[in-house]
Design goal:
The protein has 112 residues and is mainly alpha-helical. It has helices spanning 15-20, 29-37, 41-47, 51-71, 75-87, 90-109; strands at residues 2-5, 8-11. The protein contains 6 helices and 2 strands, in the order ββαααααα. The radius of gyration is 17 Å and the shape is globular.
Length: 112
Amino acid sequence: MALYFRGQTAIVVCPSKLIFHVPCPGCGVTRAVLLALHGQVIEALCFNPNVIFALGFIFLYPILILYDGLTQKTHLFTIYYSLDAALKRPMFFVPFGVFEIIIWIHNIVCHI
């Protein structure tokens, strides 16, 4: 299955889209990141709001690895365990789950 976006052809690698022909909540994040890196932040957010998490990971993760390596600290593991604990709490998990379901519906309706 090929995907056409802005005059370019790409191979679809999403298992959900390949098997069930339904996009997942993460479908389009790569294209949204490319849009954001080209300065089209609003268009990227409209394409897939999960781009916020992807960009945060892309920019903060290398900085944290470098900082932890230079200072012999474990901030990255601390952040990971904090997020893991937060995702286990309904107060955080439910709104996050609703956010992802909304993105999933958006992706299905917009044929992303």
